[in-house]
């Protein structure tokens, strides 16, 4: 039997993985589109969360994010999220403890998110004080030409954490995370906390309810056992 290879680093999604924010992001998009004169149902936008605005706007309105209207809607979405919905967002149970545990075990941590840097800063503060100090680096929508499910943001995270794909695992809550990681040759641990079914997450090497569940079963997980 071949020996399992140890995991040395973790690439982490944020929204739906560490923060219960997917619904807030979806409602921010819906509100911003409505203000711009476009009625799009929440049920249509919600499954798109996990992708960046470069995907959400073309998918929902057939508008490019870098078009004048796309830029206006994107800017307004960010304002609405911060003013109206950020106060409703909270860290998922066990998020801070899981991050500290992985860090204490010597794993390098890097963020790979389709969110923009401003959103990321606000969200990290919700997890706990000084939580950003646990991360080696972060990759956001500003660092990658294409958002998930394209692998760009994962490729940049790999470069910044200075480990090979074979030494890494990604944690995420959507099929977009899994697809992006797979294209970068990185296996994924998936969380059900984003509302996706096990069937949707079937490309993951392991599935847990969320951060607290993974922490509870950490010693038997791929993070401790290797792959």
From TrEMBL:
Gene Ontology MF terms in the entry: phosphoglycolate phosphatase activity
A Pfam family: HAD_2
GO annotation terms (biological process): DNA repair
InterPro entries linked to this entry: HAD-like_hydrolase_sf (IPR050155), HAD-like_sf (IPR036412), HAD-SF_hydro_IA (IPR006439), HAD_2 (IPR041492), HAD_sf (IPR023214), PGP-like_dom2 (IPR023198)
Recorded superkingdom: Bacteria
GO CC, alphabetical: cytosol
Xref: NCBIfam families: HAD-SF-IA-v1, HAD-SF-IA-v3
Entry protein name: Haloacid dehalogenase
């Amino acid at each position: 039997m071949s020996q399992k290879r140890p995991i040395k680093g973790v690439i982490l999604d944020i929204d739906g993985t560490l923060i219960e924010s997917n619904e807030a992001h979806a409602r921010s998009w819906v509100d911003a589109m409505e203000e711009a004169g476009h009625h799009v149902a929440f049920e249509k936008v919600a499954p798109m969360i996990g992708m960046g605005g470069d995907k959400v706007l073309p998918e929902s309105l057939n508008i490019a994010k870098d078009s004048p209207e796309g830029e206006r809607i994107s800017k307004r979405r960010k304002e609405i999220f911060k003013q109206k919905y950020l106060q409703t967002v909270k860290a998922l149970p066990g998020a801070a403890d899981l991050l500290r545990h992985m860090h204490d075990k010597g794993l390098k941590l890097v963020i790979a998110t389709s969110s923009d840097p401003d959103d990321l800063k606000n969200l990290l503060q919700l997890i706990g004080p000084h939580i950003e100090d646990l991360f080696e680096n972060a990759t956001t929508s500003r660092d990658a030409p294409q958002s998930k499910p394209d692998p760009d943001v994962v490729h940049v995270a790999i470069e910044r954490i200075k480990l090979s794909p074979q030494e890494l695992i990604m944690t995420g809550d959507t099929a977009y995370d899994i697809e992006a990681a797979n294209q970068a040759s990185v296996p994924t641990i998936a969380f059900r906390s984003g509302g996706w079914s096990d069937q949707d997450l079937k490309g993951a090497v392991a599935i847990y309810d969320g951060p607290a569940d993974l922490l509870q079963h950490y010693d038997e997980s791929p993070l401790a056992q290797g792959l």
